[in-house]
Write a structure and sequence with these properties.
Elements: H1 2-10, H2 36-44, H3 51-68, H4 71-109
Helix pairs in contact: 2-3, 3-4
Length: about 110
């Protein structure tokens, strides 16, 4: 009974050491570009053969993998999205040029 009284009077034991903090080191490899904005642009403006939409799907998968912590999977999906975005951009520019040049040539042929 005396021991219980001493514990309640004295309180919890005190630690003489100062409290320590936790340091979290974030490595620079976590910066994997997912190309979502580029894919969205290609989806909305230049979407030949639905390449922009497919690139957008791969970009979202890359972002999901990055959030889970799977950097290898995120890099693989991001690489595929980048390749699809490049092809969508090239084909979109070529189709835009052709849509301008062909009508001009037809118009000049009928003159």
């Amino acid at each position: 009974m005396l021991e219980e009284h001493e514990v309640t009077v004295l309180g919890a034991p005190h630690n003489p050491a100062p409290p320590t903090g936790t340091v979290i080191h974030i490595r620079s490899e976590t910066s994997v570009p997912d190309h979502v904005v580029w894919s969205l642009f290609n989806t909305l403006f230049m979407n030949p053969c639905c390449l922009g939409f497919i690139a957008f799907a791969y970009s979202v998968k890359s972002r999901d993998r990055k959030m889970v912590g799977d950097l290898t999977g995120a890099q693989a999906y991001a690489s595929t999205a980048k390749c699809l975005n490049i092809w969508a951009l090239i084909l979109g520019i070529l189709l835009t040029i052709l849509l301008i040049v062909i009508p001009v040539l037809i118009f000049q042929a009928y003159r």
